[in-house]
Amino acid sequence: MNITLDEAAKEKVLSHLDKDKLLLLTFEDGVGAYSQHAMIHMQTQFSINIISQEMEKADYDETIPSNVGDFWIKGYSKEDLQEEMTIKFNPRLSTFSLSGEGGLIDDNLGFIDFTKN
């Protein structure tokens, strides 16, 4: 598995990262400290989360490499992902999308930096 961020997404994500932070690709199923809600729609939902090295990540047990660093994931969420994925940022709408070789996975990928107070 691999994730490639387009230039706009890369710029947006990198502006929040430093050596003491981790990237998560959170499956929004209500499990774990960073999942915002249980899946209540008929669609798959993910979000990009940024946490510090010291923050809890016990539910995140696998990584997917990307061109901005590894994304930690809940291992079971791989069944909703694809081998080659792309994250794009739409500056006009200020939204991210996640797609794979089989098509769109999430057209409104959330973004939360949990290190911001």
UniProtKB/TrEMBL annotation:
Source organism of the structure: Enterococcus devriesei
Domain Core: 1-112
Protein name (Swiss-Prot/TrEMBL): Core domain-containing protein
Species lineage: Bacteria, Bacillati, Bacillota, Bacilli, Lactobacillales
Pfam families: Fe-S_biosyn (PF01521)
SUPFAM superfamilies: HesB-like domain (SSF89360)
